[in-house]
Amino acid sequence: MACDTRGIGLAVQSNRVLWSFGEQTMTGVKVGEPQGGHVFVTVGTTLFDALIQAVDTPAFKRILLDKGYSNLVIQYGKGRIHPKEGVFEDGGRALRVEAFTFKPSLADYVKNAGLVISHAGSGSIFETLRAKRPLVVVVNELLMDNHQQELADALADNRFLVVAKPSNLPERVGQFDQSSLVEYPKADAGNFAVELDRLVGFAP
């Protein structure tokens, strides 16, 4: 893999966040392969019931089965919707579902996932990208001054991740092809995330 990353940065101008990833040249870059058919959904410390509701449906679970996944782990945080746990069966296939509010660390869940579906907080995004996990970011459209949308769109434009809304998440996951993604550059990734948190105050 060769990676030449220049000019990753951002600026704040007239209450608007401007993202710039500069020039990037990548060859032979691949995002990590699926790990044991495991899908991890996380809302971090936020309240994002619309995301949890979108993944806690028979139709969505069938999509995961169709794509070869066998385990779904949902971290639902402060949400009022508690996902149904147990085994979802469909046509002789089984999807094991686990759900929890918080854990001291989510790093192992991210590292072991074949697919991560995350809220749009910068901390969760960059943790997943650094772990080289395929990532679908779901933006909370109810947030005001939605800089998270701008960040997610900028990263998606560079093919580091896929962006979805709760309303189209099943479609986006059903069409998801991780071979279309490229690996986020290692250089400055941590500093970039810290700088975003400092300037914009995204939730972890």
UniProtKB/TrEMBL annotation:
Domain Glycosyl transferase family 28 C-terminal, first and last residues per copy? 38-191
**Which terms under GO biological process does the entry name?**
dolichol-linked oligosaccharide biosynthetic process
Q: Does the keyword Glycosyltransferase apply?
A: yes
Q: Which UniProt keywords apply?
A: Glycosyltransferase, Transferase
Under SUPFAM superfamilies, the record lists: UDP-Glycosyltransferase/glycogen phosphorylase
**Which Pfam families does this one have?**
Glyco_tran_28_C
Which GO CC annotations does the UniProt entry carry? UDP-N-acetylglucosamine transferase complex
Give the molecular function GO annotations. hexosyltransferase activity
Designated name of the protein: Beta-1,4-N-acetylglucosaminyltransferase
Q: What are the top taxonomic ranks of the organism?
A: Eukaryota, Viridiplantae, Streptophyta, Klebsormidiophyceae, Klebsormidiales
